[in-house]
Amino acid sequence: GTWQPGGQLPSQKRPKEETVDVTTMWLAAALADAGDEYQETVAKAIKHIHASKPGKSNEWYVARLLLAQQLNDEPTAKAMTEKLLDQQHADGGWGWIVGQPSDALGTGMALYALLRAGMSDDSAAVDKAKRFLIDQQRDDGSWAVQGTKEKKRHKVEETAVYWGTTWAVIALAESLAD
C-alpha cells in the first residue's frame, strides 16, 4: 500500500518512513479521481496512511490535509487544518520541519493546503502567511530556503530554493481572487 521515494527524497532530514508516507499520500491524492481501476490501490494506500504515525515535517500535515480534502474526509481535514494552524509561527510562516524557523517551502505548502481546504483568503492566518512570503522574497524573485537534506540542513541550498520558490508562487497564486 505504499510507494517508495526515489532520488534525493530518502536523504531528507526526516525519518525515511515519513518520506514513504508523504510520497504515498501525494500519489494517493493524485490517483483518487483517476478512475475505478485505481480505487483498490488508493484504498491500500489509505489503509497504510491511517496506520502511520504523524510526521515531523509540515509536508506530512499538508499532504494529509490535501488527501483528506480529495477524499471528502471532513474529520481528518478539520484535524489537519487545526494542526497546521497551531504550527504557524508568530511571523506568519511555517518551517518545512515542524518547529523550525519559517521558510517559503513550509509556508507555501501550508498556505496552499489551507486555501484548498476552504480557509478564507481574508482570515488572519492566511493574511499573515501571505505577508511572510511577500516580505521574504529576494530581489531576484526567489526565496532563500535551507536544505531539506540532512547534510545541507544549515545552509541555503539551490534545490530547496527552487522548491520553496515554487510553493510560494503556487500558494500566492491560489490566494488571488477568482
Explain what the structure shows.
By secondary structure, the chain is mostly helical. Helix content is 56%, strand content 0%. The protein contains seven helices and no strands. It has helices at 16-31, 39-51, 58-70, 74-87, 104-116, 124-136, 158-174. Helix 1 packs antiparallel against helix 2. The model has no long low-confidence stretch (mean pLDDT 92).
Give me the secondary-structure topology:
Layout: H1 16-31, H2 39-51, H3 58-70, H4 74-87, H5 104-116, H6 124-136, H7 158-174
Attribute tags:
single chain, 178 residues, mainly alpha, 56% helix, 0% strand, globular
Element-level helix/strand string: HHHHHHH
Please state the average pLDDT score: 92
- Beta-strand content bin: under 5%
N-C termini distance:
37 Å
Q: What structural class do the secondary elements suggest?
A: mainly alpha
- Alpha carbon gyration radius: 16 Å
The best one-word shape is globular
The count of strands amounts to 0
For the biggest sheet, the summary is: none
Question: Helix amount, in percent?
Answer: 55-70%
Number of helices: 7
Weakly predicted, low-confidence segments: none
